[in-house]
Amino acid sequence: xxxxxxxxxxxxxxxxxxxxxxxxxxxxxxxxxxxxxxxxxxxxxxxxxxxxxxxxxxxxxxxxxxxxxxxxxxxxxxxxxxxxxxxxxxxxxxxxxxxxxxxxxxxxxxxxxxxxxxxxxxxxxxxxxxxxxxxxxxxxxxxxxx
Length: 146
Known about the structure:
The protein has 146 residues and is mainly alpha-helical. It has helices at residues 3-29, 38-49, 55-62, 66-78, 99-120, 126-145; strands spanning 82-86, 93-97. The chain is built from 6 helices and 2 strands, in the order ααααββαα. It has a two-stranded antiparallel sheet with strand order 1-2. The protein is globular, with a radius of gyration of 18 Å. Residues 1-141 form the HTH marR-type domain.
């Protein structure tokens, strides 16, 4: 591996940390989002994309233990953001978003995406941002297929 490529990978890793930190700070500034971690909001996103999903599938998707997801889901349910229902197989439960959960997730995305847009709009064209995210999508797919 060339030194230039090695440096690029190091910069990519650093960028991921800085972006995540920025998102956490943006969410912490928004009153409606203060009580929720980035992991909880990511759980809501996964549930939105996969209605009636099981806790096992959420745990697998997020790469965490089922007990962590169970605790996370209990908090989200207590806050009225998700509903847990018996699945077709009575041993499994399915989880779906409530309207309140949808609204919170929409708010979180609006806040973060708006801040990112404000930050980037004077430095990158719309096309550059779209191209960059398409490259990230390819990377994500390669990692998922690994």
